[in-house]
Amino acid sequence: MARTHRARRFRRNARRVDGSRVRRFTVYGIIFGLGIFVALATTLDLPTLDSATDRPADLVTAPNPYVDPPSDRATSPEGEDAASVELEPAVAPAADPEPTIEERHITVRRGDTLMKVLRRTGAEHDEAHTAITALKTVFDPRRLMAGQKLTASFRRSESSDSKSKKTGELMSVMVKLDVERSVAANRAEDGFEATEVVRSFKPAFVRGIGRIDDSLFVSARRAGVPAQIIMYLIRMFSWDVDFQREIRRGDRFEILFETFRDSDGRPVKNGDILFASLSLSGADLRLYRFATSDGVVDYYDPKGQSARKALMKTPVDGARLSSRYGKRRHPILGYNMMHRGIDFAAPRGTPIMAAGDGVVERASRYGAYGKYVRIRHNNTYKTAYAHLKSYAKGVRGGKRVRQGQIIGYVGSTGRSTGPHLHYEIHRNGKQINPLRLKLPTGRKLKGREFARFLEEKASIDVALSETPALSRLAQADTGAE
Fold it and tell me: Is the pLDDT of residue 284 over 80?
């Protein structure tokens, strides 16, 4: 009985194993058959069927209109493609990036040298030195002045590291000395070559006329006369006119000066004053510009008498006479004492001019005078300037100065209550009243020089009559105040 049961179980198990093997062989057969079919289709390049139409589908990829325009495809007379060849676009070799030119603009600062400025633009030391050496043939680098403009050009490749310190190869350096003249050094095969560029401008005359309602400066500025021209006008008459006491409401001024314009007619700079006149309380003062045969330029009245005197009455522009010569109560010490000079109140930093040609005897602190300058003009006269804020560059003992040259700046050093200039005139070692001094006159033209002056005066009078007076000289103001 047990044997019969085991035999039945053995037969059932054998049938299960046989069925499993059959199913396994069937799956393997299907996979093997599909593999053979795929291999044959790949080898023989058999067409596939389009599922939508049950027709062989085109094995060629649809053409890209940006690579193969339809007009460039060859077609058969029946309108179907005669060839199904896919063209691959040609790949050009990568070209080197084009170098770029970069310009850097820098304004020269006080104390700068040309090397220091170029290094600040990023130029390498050796390249900067080579460029400066070339520039020395047309320009003295020691004459570089604060405020001048410098442009440096560099050639830089796009492949260079933008974060690197090296700016690029220095190609050119240009220094704009003024509105007329520029110097440049441009890279050449064997270094740098220097050039000088001088621009030419068209001269024109400008005439201004007006009534003085407050001060000469304010009235002339209101008429449009450039501030720089007004300051020079004041200096022209400073030997004869006390602008604090002698200007009255209703006085008049007239001026003829040059201006220079570019090719577009825009003013670029102002020239010289050719003629100026002041009508003060009915008295006319007229001055003409004239250069003598020895090259000295000055202003003369119609009789050929120079307006220049040995000493200027007012050594500071635009100042107010705040204290006269004589006995007064000292504002700090509190008791009466002799004031042996005159005081001009002016804003701190206002330029102070030498009253005449001479040699600086002293430029240092001097007790209650604070910062002090004394100039010897001749064996008789000296002038002194006290309470200065600072000295002008180069002013020191033994230095020769010219009349009108800036020697220092208004301050309040020493025993002083506020910014002002204390001005003294010494005659034979003693202080005198500057307001009562009868100053010797300047040069008097004679002979051929006077004849030449009369010819120049006549031409200026013609230009004066032919130039219309403008109520507003905006076009004459170049912006260089």
Answer: yes
What radius of gyration, in Å, describes the C-alpha atoms of the chain? 47
Q: Tell me the C-alpha distance between 349 and 421, whole Å.
A: 11
Structure token pair of residue 378: 């001749």
Whole-angstrom distance, CA of residue 154 vs CA of residue 121: 10
Identify how many contiguous H helices and E strands the chain contains and give both numbers.
6, 23
| In-domain check, residue 123 | yes
Q: What is the DSSP string of 69-136?
A: -GGGS-B-TTSSBS---PPPPP-PPPPPPPPEEEEEEEEPPTT--HHHHHHHHT--HHHHHHHHHHHT
Residue 295, pLDDT score: 84
The pLDDT tens digits for 413-434 are: 988 888 999 999 998 888 888 8
Q: What angle do CA 440, 445, 449 make, to 5 degrees?
A: 155
Q: How far is CA 414 from CA 325, 337, 351, 438, in A?
A: 19, 17, 18, 31
**Is residue 32 situated within a structural domain?**
no
In eight-state DSSP terms, residue 436 is G
Residues 214 and 268 in one domain: yes
pLDDT in tens, 203-261: 889 998 988 888 888 888 888 888 889 888 888 887 777 776 778 888 999 999 998 88
**Distances, alpha carbon 213 to alpha carbons 135, 209, 219, 286, 393, in Å:** 52, 13, 6, 20, 37
Same domain, 134 and 187: yes
Name the residue range of residue 378's domain.
Answer: 320-436
Q: DSSP per residue over 180-220, as a string?
A: SEEEEEEEETTEEEEEEEE---EEEEEEEEEE-SS-HHHHH
Tell if the pTM clears 0.90, that is, is over it.
no
> How many domains in the chain?
3
Looking at the structure, do residues 187 and 277 belong to the same domain, yes or no? no
Q: Output the furthest CA–CA distance in the chain (Å, rounded).
A: 171
